[in-house]
Amino acid sequence: MRFEHVKRIALYYKAIPGMLRLLRQERRELEEEYNGLRSTAADGTPHTSSPGKPTETMGLRALEHGVGDRLREIEEREQQLVADEASIRACLDTLNGKYKQVIVLRYVRGYSWAKIGIKISAPDSTARNWHEKAMERFGEALEELPEAGGLIHRASRART
Fold first, then answer.
1. pTM score of the predicted model
2. Is residue 77 classed exposed, middle or buried when 0-12, 13-18 and 19+ CB atoms within 10 A define those classes?
3. What's the mean pLDDT in 11-25?
């Protein structure tokens, strides 16, 4: 796998928790806004804090804005992100401890080469050397994933 793809996937891995947080926040906001539509009275009609037209208006507004479709999209996207995160973590876990540490420090934590050198108790040049080998091995592990092409595509489209 090309270095650029491996780097993009590592940055995507870093961005996934933030993306999940935003999706969950959007879902909560939609659910709170249309919360009255979720409960029903004994006769099967939806009810809110005020009877009559407000409920009907809210239901129509939810349909017009495609709230149900958006909630389904959010759920699918969340599932995809969680699956991607697990796949990438599994590939990282196959690496030697020092290689995994260099990738995590560089891409997940955003450390400079000097800080990485201090963390691993080695010179910057050693950290860079380990980084090259780590990215190569990480790329090999990622290539073995059945969904590697899709993962590269999603990582390329993500705002990291």
1. 0.80
2. middle
3. 96
